[in-house]
Amino acid sequence: MNITTTIDGTTARIHARGEIDFDTLPPLRAAAAALPPQVTDLLWDLTDTPFMDVAGLHLLFHPTTSGPHCRTTVTGLGPQPLWLLLTAAEADPGVFDLSRLLPDIPPPGFRPPAL
Question: What's the pTM?
Fold first, then answer.
């Protein structure tokens, strides 16, 4: 896992390169926890993340950030990570609320192409 953090004012972008699983979860959480207190928007860039298991759900829905009011969004979702998020939201929309995480929510019933 390669992690790059870029901060521009109150916005931080964490670019994760590699698979997200329970082995890579601690350094990803550490990157988020190390953000300065002025960060109010955290963008997870998963452009180079081809696979994510339930650890990704923990990362995105139970964030560890520098402040309690930090808005978390995600970009660059490939087919498998998007499928996981949509499946989790379908199973329990109250817990896995995609409206706060994805700036452009896929329409209801959307399914990415088969893997």
Answer: 0.85
